[in-house]
Specification:
It contains 29 helices and 21 strands. By secondary structure, the chain is α/β, with parallel strands linked by helices.
C-alpha cells in the first residue's frame, strides 16, 4: 500500500484496534458527492457491501424524512471506521468540513478508526491547504470565519494519518486501488473481531477445530453441519467463525433463526435473504420455492460464497436454501446448525461436527464473567459457583442465564436461587431445551418422557423390552431421540443431560406441580406418599405410569409407615413398577391399558383376592407361574404383558 507523504501517523492500517463499544456500522464514507458519488465512491461502496462490510453512504442509507445533519452526525458516531475520500473539491463543501471535524472528534473521544484516501490530490495540498484547497479556504475565511480554524486543524490531522494515494497504487487502476482498500478494512475489522472473541470462553480451541474441518482455500464445495443440544453454543461458534473468515469469500450471508422464520414467512423469504445477502443487489421477490431454488443456483454457481444456515429443523429448508453442492461456486462453504443430526445425514453434508460443551474450568470462567462483577471473591461464593457449574453441566446458556441473574444478588440470595433452581428450573433455559421436544411426534414425546422419568441409567436392553411392551416402538424412537440430542447411550445404559431430564420432568408436572394425582407419570417418593394419603377413593385416572422404589430393610415401625398404593383407581395405568413397598392389587385392577407390571421383593400383603403374599412369593414369581393369577390373565386384552423379577 502506498502511504501518504506524512512523516507521522496516528494509525497504521495493520495496527490492531481494541474497543468494547458496540458499533451500528462498520464503515462511514465521507466524500464530496459532485466529485466521486457516481464513480469512485460508488465502486468502493459496492465492493465493501459485497464483502459483508456494513457501510453508511448518505444516498444509500439515510432514511427518508430525517434531518440530514443529525442523521449523519449520529451515523459518524455509530461507525467503527470512517473513510474520508479527499477529492479536488472536497473542501468546497462546508458540510464536508463540518463532517470531517466531527469525525476527527470521534477519533479522539470514541476510539474510531480514520482512514484517508487522497483521490487525485496530493496529501500536502490537504495538509497545508495549498492550490485548490487554498483557494477554497480563502472563500471560507470570508463566509465561515468562526469555523475556519477548526476545519484547518481537522484537515491537517486527517492528512497526517497513513492512507492511500490513488494515483500511486497500481498505476491508478481504480479496481485494484479499491481491492487493496477493502482488503485492508476487512483485516482491521477482523482484528477487532478477534479481540471480541477473547471474551468468549473456550471459543478459540473450538474455532480451530471447526476451521480445520472447513478446509478454507482447499477448493471444492463443502457443507458442514454443526449439531447438538439446545443452548450448547452452536450459534455462538458459527458467528465467531463467520466474522473471521467471511472476508475471504466473494459473497456471504448469515441466515438466523431458520426454524422460526420459515414457520412465519416461508422458505421463499429466506431464499430472498440469501440472494440479497450474497449479491447485495436490489431486493428480489420470489413467489415460489422452486423459483427460488433455480435463482440461487443460477446466480451463485460461479461465486465463492460463505452461507450460514442457523437453526434448521426441517429437511425441506435445506432443499430450498442449499439443495446441492453444484448450486455454489468453487471454494464455497455452507455451514448448517441444527439440533437434529438426521437432517445432516439425509442432506449428505460433508462433515458433521458435534458441539462440545464446556468443561468445569471453562464453565467457571463463563459463569464468573456474568455473575461476579461487583463481588469480592470469597470462599462462600466459590463454593456456590461450583454448585452452579455442576447444575449447568457445561451448558453455556444455563451458565449465562443464571450468572446474569445473580450478578447483583448477595450471598443469601445466591443460596436461595440455587435452592429454587433445584425445585423450579429457569423458564428461559427450559424453553430453549423444549424446542427439541416440541419437534417430536406424540409417540416419540411419550417415549422421551418415560426415559426421562423412569429409565435414565437403566440398562438399554432391559428398558427397551418394557418400552416395547408399552407400544412405543422404541427401536426407531430411541434413534430419533439420539439424533435430536435428547438422549445418549453410555456404557449400555440410557443417559441424558441433567437439564434435559429436568425439562422432561417439568413437562410432566405442567401446571400441577404440587398435585401428583394429575401427572401422567409419578416417580418421586414424596409424590407417591401424597397419592397414598388420598386413600382408596382418590381419582387417579390421569396416571399412566408409576414407579415406586422403597428398597430398604425397615424396622417394624418403618414397615407400618410404608405407603400402600391403591391401583384400582388408576384406570389408564399402562406401566407399574413396585420395588420394596406395599402394593394392593385387587380384583378391580384395571387391565385394559396395563402393558408392563414389575413386582420386586417388597412387603406386598395381598396382590389380589385369593393370593396372599407369603415367604414363597419370590420363588412363585421367579417361576412365573401364571396359574396363580387367574383373574389377571383372564382380563388381559393384548398379549404384551411383561413380568420382571428382580431381587435384592
Amino acid at each position: 500500500m502506498a502511504s501518504s507523504s506524512s512523516s507521522s501517523s496516528s494509525f497504521s492500517p495493520s495496527a490492531p484496534v481494541f474497543s468494547s463499544k458496540s458499533w451500528k456500522y462498520d464503515v462511514f464514507l465521507s466524500f464530496r458527492g459532485e466529485d466521486t458519488r457516481k464513480t469512485f465512491v460508488d465502486h468502493l461502496y459496492t465492493a465493501l457491501e459485497q464483502q459483508g462490510i456494513y457501510t453508511y453512504k448518505d444516498d444509500e442509507t439515510l432514511p427518508r424524512g430525517e434531518s440530514i445533519g443529525p442523521s449523519l452526525m449520529n451515523a459518524i458516531e455509530e461507525s467503527q471506521i470512517a473513510v474520508i475520500i479527499f477529492s479536488e473539491n472536497y473542501a468546497d463543501s462546508s458540510w464536508c468540513l463540518h463532517e470531517l471535524a466531527h469525525i476527527m472528534k470521534c477519533k479522539d473521544t470514541g476510539n474510531q478508526i480514520v482512514l484517508p484516501i487522497f483521490y487525485n490530490v496530493d496529501p500536502s495540498d490537504v495538509r497545508k491547504q495549498k492550490r485548490k484547497y487554498g483557494e477554497t479556504f480563502s472563500k471560507h475565511e470570508l463566509e465561515n470565519e468562526n469555523n475556519v480554524e477548526s476545519w484547518r486543524k481537522a484537515l491537517m490531522d486527517a492528512s497526517n494519518i497513513s492512507g492511500w494515494e490513488s494515483k500511486h497504487i497500481a498505476n491508478g487502476h481504480e479496481s485494484k486501488v479499491i481491492k487493496e482498500i477493502v482488503d485492508t478494512i476487512s483485516r482491521r475489522l477482523h482484528l477487532v473481531t478477534q479481540s471480541a472473541n477473547e471474551n468468549l470462553v473456550g471459543i478459540e480451541a473450538r474455532m480451530q477445530d471447526l476451521k480445520s474441518k472447513l478446509q478454507i482455500g482447499s477448493g471444492g464445495v463443502r457443507m458442514i453441519g454443526i449439531w447438538g443440544v439446545g443452548g450448547g453454543g452452536k450459534t455462538t461458534l458459527v458467528s465467531a467463525i463467520y466474522d473471521e473468515i467471511s472476508s475471504k469469500f466473494d459473497g456471504c450471508c448469515f441466515i438466523k433463526n431458520i426454524r422460526e422464520e420459515s414457520s412465519k414467512n416461508g422458505s421463499e423469504k429466506l431464499q430472498e435473504k440469501i440472494i440479497f445477502g450474497v449479491l447485495k443487489q436490489k431486493q428480489v421477490t420470489i413467489e415460489r420455492v422452486e423459483e427460488g431454488r433455480q435463482m440461487i443456483k443460477d446466480r451463485l454457481c460461479h461465486k465463492m460464497v460463505l452461507i450460514v444456515l442457523d437453526d434448521v429443523n426441517q429437511l425441506d429448508q435445506l432443499k430450498a436454501l442449499a439443495g446441492s453442492h453444484d448450486w455454489f461456486g468453487e471454494g464455497s462453504r455452507i455451514i448448517i446448525t441444527t439440533r437434529d443430526v438426521h437432517l445432516l445425514n439425509a442432506h449428505r453434508v460433508d462433515v458433521m461436527h458435534n458441539i462440545r460443551l464446556l468443561n468445569d474450568d471453562e464453565s467457571i470462567k463463563l459463569f464468573c464473567k456474568h455473575a461476579c462483577r461487583d463481588y469480592r471473591w470469597t470462599e462462600d461464593y466459590g463454593q456456590l459457583s461450583k454448585e452452579v457449574v455442576s447444575y449447568a453441566g457445561g451448558l453455556p446458556l444455563a451458565l449465562t442465564v443464571i450468572g446474569s441473574f445473580l450478578c447483583d444478588k448477595n450471598i443469601h440470595e445466591w443460596r436461595s436461587t440455587l435452592a429454587r433452581l433445584k425445585d423450579i428450573p429457569d423458564d428461559n433455559i427450559l424453553e430453549a431445551l423444549k424446542v427439541s421436544f416440541d419437534g417430536l411426534k406424540p409417540l416419540e414425546q411419550d417415549l422421551f418422557l418415560d426415559i426421562a422419568c423412569f429409565f435414565r441409567w437403566e440398562k438399554k436392553d432391559r428398558a427397551m423390552e418394557m418400552l416395547d411392551a408399552c407400544g412405543f416402538h422404541p427401536v426407531i424412537g430411541v434413534k430419533v431421540l439420539i439424533q435430536k440430542a435428547l438422549i445418549t447411550i453410555s456404557n449400555g445404559r440410557f443417559d441424558m443431560h441433567d437439564l434435559v431430564q429436568e425439562m422432561g420432568h417439568h413437562i410432566v408436572r405442567g401446571e400441577h406441580r404440587k398435585n401428583p394425582e394429575k401427572h401422567s407419570r409419578v416417580w418421586k417418593r414424596e409424590d407417591i406418599f401424597k397419592i397414598c394419603v388420598m386413600g382408596a377413593t382418590a381419582e387417579l385416572d390421569k396416571i399412566e405410569a408409576i414407579k415406586m422404589d422403597f428398597r430398604f430393610h425397615p424396622t417394624k415401625k418403618q414397615e407400618q409407615d410404608l405407603p400402600t398404593v391403591y391401583s384400582a383407581n388408576m384406570k389408564n395405568l399402562r406401566y407399574m413398577d413396585s420395588r420394596g413397598g406395599q402394593l394392593s392389587l385387587s380384583n378391580d385392577l384395571p387391565l385394559r391399558q396395563l402393558c408392563c407390571l414389575i413386582l420386586c421383593e417388597g412387603l406386598q400383603k395381598q396382590l389380589w383376592e385369593g393370593c396372599k403374599a407369603n415367604d414363597k412369593i419370590k420363588e412363585i414369581i421367579h417361576q412365573r407361574t401364571s396359574s396363580l393369577f387367574p383373574k389377571l390373565v383372564k382380563n388381559m386384552k393384548k398379549p404384551r404383558f411383561l413380568l420382571f423379577t428382580m431381587f435384592w
